[in-house]
């Protein structure tokens, strides 16, 4: 019998999907473990429910109190190694089949061999970054960094234009809330009164009593094409990072 | 990206291609690629490499103050310093703040005021929409708070108000004066910078990257008065 892939909140994209049957669990206890910003809870729940809708009948989607309500005793599960120490303990205790992690430019195996080669030396970001550039060929011209330098940070510390009230950049893409978001929002509002909803009052910081502001356009996962970054939409004027990387502004 | 929706390799390849085609300047593209393929990957791998205990077993600067109510409740209105109030207000509204607001404003304040690094790490994890368990320890315990004694960064990331003034437009509308370290108008970051150095001097004396700031501290005529002022500062006022 084929294995069922149990995916987690950090594994909601196509990178983590190899076409087989999937399992996704929305466990209320996970959101109750710690205080959590309401916007963060909304983002996670919305993304999970959108992914469940997207996968349709390829996914078993459960909304339960605890993971164990679904996975206890199951021997048919596989996971892509999850993203926290606690989650890794859980999947190992369960005896799930474990695949190497994904979702980063450098694999854990590649990092380990780079770190081992450093011997007793410090694991410096700059060394790691150059090694990554060389290994991947990113922004490389042959064996040399593009433009002749590895680091252009010095060019990204320009002061904002004099007397400017904005940098004149186009708006970022804003997601638009849909019915799934409305469901999350309703649960979050109800959750402020009852612990049986998605999360309890104690998990919503007293400092963020209002729902997150309603964004204007499409919801994050409701549209696949929306997620394919075009690399063009904002680039001509804003230039990805922009020369004001290390600035911040009191203006909204 | 931390939800797994965007693949970072696809993202950096796409952006790098815009440089290759002449559509984007190298300085911008390189800075972006370094944040994603460099720093993001680096903190992920350090999360595993440094072990599960890294988050809670380091406190090199002996910072033991509990997180104040203003942080826990994201009560921006109770904070007078314009830069910090704005940053906390944005966090309250969106669960998000700019990288430099995190480091230079929020983290710098916490470092100077000696907030418990574990409490601060968990607060960053809980309050930021991108706050996964793996992303915060190297950033908060290491980079921002120097609680690990130099594993991630060679020196504490701190500055006085003058640097915040140079790098932002917060100070014009603030009731404090970034150039003043003593008196009713003293910027809490400017006074706080010297009070912080005074407190951590014994721990950082051997750090040659701190030699110059610590020499500045020793030459400060009103050192004791500034330290006293910051010790008595009433929270966020």
Rg of chain B, Å, rounded: 19 Å
Helix fraction bin of chain A: 25-40%
Instruction: Output the helix-strand order of chain A.
Output: EEHHEHEHEHHEEHHH
What is the CATH topology classification name of the largest domain in chain A? Rossmann fold
| Level-2 CATH architecture of the largest domain in chain A | 3-Layer(aba) Sandwich
Q: What can be said about the biggest beta sheet of chain A?
A: 5 strands, parallel
Low-confidence stretches of chain A: 193-211, 215-242
In the CATH hierarchy, what is the architecture of the largest domain in chain B at level 2?
Orthogonal Bundle
Query: What number of structural domains do the residues of chain A give?
Result: 2
Unreliable stretches of chain B, pLDDT < 50, 5 or more residues? none
> What order do the strands of the largest sheet of chain A run in, or round the barrel if closed?
3-2-1-4-5
* CATH homologous superfamily descriptor of the largest domain in chain B: DNA Cyclobutane Dipyrimidine Photolyase, subunit A, domain 3
Strand proportion of chain A: 5-15%
Structural class of chain B: mainly alpha
Largest interface, with counts of residues having CB < 8 Å to the other chain, equals:
A-B, 72 and 81 residues
Distance from first to last alpha carbon of chain A: 55 Å
Largest sheet geometry of chain B? none
Strand content of chain B: under 5%
**Element order, helices and strands of chain B?**
HHHHHHHHHHH
Helix vs. strand class of chain A: alpha/beta
